[in-house]
Amino acid sequence: MTYSIQRKVLILLVSFAFLLSAMFSGIAFLVSFATEDQMIENVLTQEAQYLRTRYQDGHPLTSRFANIVVFAPDVALPDEYQTLLDAASMGDPEVTGEGEQHWHIKTVELANNQRAYLFLNATAWLAMPSLQENMTILLSVLIAISLLIALAFAYLLTRKITSPLVHLAGLLSTQPHLIATSAVLKRQDEIGLLAREFEHALSALQNSLLRESDFTRDVGHELRTPLAVIKNYLTLQRGRTLQPGELAELTTQVNYVTNCVDSLIALARAEDVEKHTFSLRHTIEETLMSALSPEQLDAFEFIINVPYDLKITAHKALCIVLIRNLLGNALNHAKTPQLVIEATQHYWRFSNDASHMPKSPMSRHTKGESSAGIGQGLYLVNRIASAQHWQCDYTFVDNKFTLTFYWPSSSGE
Predict the structure, then answer these.
(1) Residue 405 in contact with residue 348, Cβ under 8 Å?
(2) What count of other Cβ atoms lies within 10 Å of the Cβ of residue 297?
(3) Tens of pLDDT along 266-300?
(4) How far apart are CA 384 and CA 324, in angstroms?
C-alpha cells in the first residue's frame, strides 16, 4: 500500500503545529502560575522589610495585611502553625494546610539574631484556580483556531512543496517523453536538479534503445548481401576450385563485412565513449599503415595535406573506422589510384577522381553504374559523421568527387 508524499508532508506539518500549540499552552499555564507566585513572594519580601524597620524602631510586629499572621521572636508558635513551618522547612515555602488553604511562609531575620515568621494565607489571592476553567476553555478555543489556521497553511505549504515532485512523478509514470519540456527542469533547486537527472537518465536510456534498434536494423541491411555472397562462394568451393576473380570477390566481401561490423560496433558505442583530443595526421598515417599492405601502399598514392600540429576533439575509434571505410572505397572504386586527404581547423576533406556520381551517394545501398568513385556506399560514413555531430557535404565537379566534414569550432585546435 502506497501513500502520497502530499499526505505524509501534511500529516507531519499538522502534527508539528499541534505539538507547538500544546507546548505553548503548557508554557502559558506555567508562566501564569509562576507570575502569581512571584507576586505573592514580592508582597512577603516588602512586608518583611517593613517589619524589620518597625522592630528597629521599637514598635510591635504587626502586619499591614489582614491575611498575614506575624509571630514575634518571643512568641511561641501554635501547633497549627508549627506544623506548617515544619512542612515549609523541608525546602518548599509553599504548603497546603487544612481545608485546602494555600500558605506562603517567610522567615524574617531581625537584629540580635532574632527571628520572626510570616504566615500568608494566599487562598483568597490566588487567581489561577478560579480562572483555570475559563483559561482552559479560552486556550482550547485558541488552540482550535490555531490548528485550523495551521491546517490551512500546512495544506497550502504541502501543495507548494510537493506539487513539483507530484508533477514529475506523474510525467514519469504516464508521459515520460514530456519531461524534456517540463517547467520543473528550470527550477534552480534540488527538485530541478532531480528532474534534470531524471531527464538525462531517460534520454540516455532512449538513445541506448535507439542505438540498439539502429544496430539491429543496420546489421540486417548491411550484412545480408555480403554474407550471402560468401556463402555462395563457399558452396562453389566444395565442387571446384575458385577462380582468381572469385577469390578476389570473396576477399572483398570478407573485408567489407569486417569494416561494416567495425563501423556498426563503433556507432553503437559512440555515446558511451568519451571524446579525446588527438593528432589528426598521426591518426591518419597510423591507420594507413595498419589497414593497408605494403603492396597497396606502393600501388596507391596518398596525398596528405594535414598540419602536424592539428588536433581535434572527437571519438578516435569512429575516426579510424571512417578512414578505413573511405580507404576501402577509394581502393576498390576510384578511377585513378590517388586519394587526397586535407584538413584545417574547420574541415576534413577527402577527394579522388571519378567518372560519375550516383544520385544520392550518402543513401543506403547506393551504387553507381560502374562502382567507381569514393561516393559509393557512404551511408555508414554519413552515420559516423552524424554521431560525431559533424556536417557532411559532397560535391562532384570536373570528374572529381569531394567529401567534406565540417566540425564544430571547438573540435579543431
Answers:
(1) yes
(2) 13
(3) 777 666 667 889 999 999 999 898 888 888 888 89
(4) 12
Cell triple for 333: 572504386
- Tell me the C-alpha distance between 80 and 8, whole Å: 61
Phi, psi of 185 (to 5 degrees): -65, -25
Which of the residue ranges 50-59, 153-162, 372-381 has the most confident prediction, judged by mean pLDDT? 50-59
What's the first-to-final CA gap in the chain, in angstroms?
58
Sign of the dihedral defined by the CA atoms of residues 45, 46, 47, 51, in that order: positive
Res. 95 pLDDT band, cuts 50 70 90: confident
Q: How far is CA 15 from CA 11, 26, 147, 355, 406, in A?
A: 6, 17, 10, 85, 63
Cell numbers at 389, concatenated: 555531430
Domains defined along the chain, listed by start: 5-129 (3.30.450), 274-413 (3.30.565.10)
Sign of the CA dihedral with 289 first, then 290, 291, and 293 last: positive
Q: What H or E segment, with its residue span, contains residue 281?
A: helix 280-291
What's the gap between Cα 379 and its chain centre?
39
Question: What was the pLDDT predicted at 373?
Answer: 37
308-359 confidence digits (pLDDT tens):
999 999 888 888 888 888 888 788 777 889 999 999 999 999 998 887 776 7
Grid coordinates representing 270 are 559512440
222-254 exposure pattern, b = at least 16 Cβ within 10 A, e = fewer: bbeebeebbeebeeeeeeeeeeeeeeeebeebe
Which residues are paired to 401 by β-bridges?
A: 352, 396
Name the strand (E) or helix (H) holding 413. Answer: none
- Beta bridge partners of residue 380, listed in sequence order: none
CA distance 123 to 8: 49
Which three cell numbers, joined as nine digits, stand for 249? 570477390
